Amino acid sequence: NKLLDQIKELEINKKKLKLDLERSKEAYTFVVTTPNEASNTVYGEISRELSNAKKEILISSPWITHIVDELSSFKKKEGKNKIDIKIITRLIKEDIKKGVTDLDKFRVLKDNFGAEIRYNNDLHAKMVVLDNSVAIISSANLTKKGLSVNYEAGICLKDKNMSNKVAQCFNEVWKESKPLTQQAIKNVLSERKWCCGRHSYRY
Fold this sequence. Notes:
Blueprint: H1 2-27, E1 28-33, H2 42-50, E2 56-60, E3 84-89, H3 93-98, H4 103-113, E4 116-119, E5 127-130, E6 134-138, H5 144-149, E7 152-157, H6 160-175, E8 178-179, H7 182-189, E9 193-196, E10 199-202
Parallel strand pairs: 2-3, 3-4
Antiparallel strand pairs: 1-7, 2-5, 4-8, 5-6, 6-7, 9-10
């Protein structure tokens, strides 16, 4: 009887390990951006997971020109149906001139989707966190090149504990970031640069 109990316990443990292994496979997906076809892409995962969001969307990307269409199902909602959208990006005059920062997209995100946007010019992290249960971390900016042209790589986490840690990281950066106001944009656009010798000054 003791031997049978031990065998039964081993079988239970084996099933548990197999289940844990299957779950771990589902919890982590390697994602890429490539000009060639790929099965698991950064853009594909972001689009798919955005469509499943229920309460909160956290987005961190230094450059943003693409994401509005993917948020089309989240038009401003109030009450229980409201989805909180928080975005951290950069606000640098040169980026705006180059077109890698799109001020019109920011306006649409704020006015049409009720997004709260902050900027932090030390930002380099690219993260999308949904409902604290899914996190996509990659090298890709939310731009056409980053999502469809460049060679980029990342991971989609569907593990709640790990996604919570990514959300905590986002929230730490959020606290250190400044609100993206119309005045902040005016200040950046009115910056002038002049050089003296080897030094460059902004005022």
